Amino acid sequence: MKQAVYFIGHMVVRIALSAPLRDLRFVQNGYAKLYAIGKQLLEKPEYRFFTHNMEKGMTVLDIGAHSGYYSRIFSSLIGMNGTLYSFEPDPWCFGILKHQLRNKENCEAVHVALGASKTTALFYPNARSRADSGLTPRPHSEKPIEVHMTSVDVFCRERGIQRVDAMKIDTEGSEMAVLLGASDLLKTAPPKWICIEIFPEALKASGSSANKLCELLLQCSYVLNRISPSGSLCTITDIPAFLGECGHSYANVIATRKTENTD
Question: Which CATH number is 149's domain given?
């Protein structure tokens, strides 16, 4: 099923990004709906985990929000007393994200990349799979564009955010840089859990590695868990074996604090 979803997704992206269509709202809305269907088919365990472990009033960072599929879910789960910041550097995807969140009063769409520091960076939109866009070139990358970058620590400091309850990080290989840019938060007020994509090939291309990413989370007193089909967590006891299972694909891992219990 995964390969079929990817094939259809690649076809949709090529059509949606064609010059006559890419700026039409109904095309962008159609893309967002089809992307959501793909996520619903492929990431049911993640959805179940989120519904079991997000609470009203939480402050959440959606880092790499893309077209807003998870942001819309998070917004509903945390309620009006919660706050969601959704980060997306891709101009085309950000336009869709902002439209998708237009009626969500507890959300703010932030047009910026997150990394280790506040600077500018080159961002590579992907012509075949917009979800594969990132800060390092990959097959089918388009001409890079310059984007603004900040870090979690700088953003929280500038906004006066003292507590972050949960983070979702999906940045196509830049996950290590995002965590390094959140070092103060992880030391002083660590989130209860972090959902993070581990894609060994993308991490290697960005100059890091899946092993280093896992080591950093362990050093920050997190436990790494895989998500079962029911949405419950299973502790990863053999990290090298788990990373070997990833192969040329990715896995979403839930990092939980050692003192925290999640469903």
Answer: 3.40.50.150
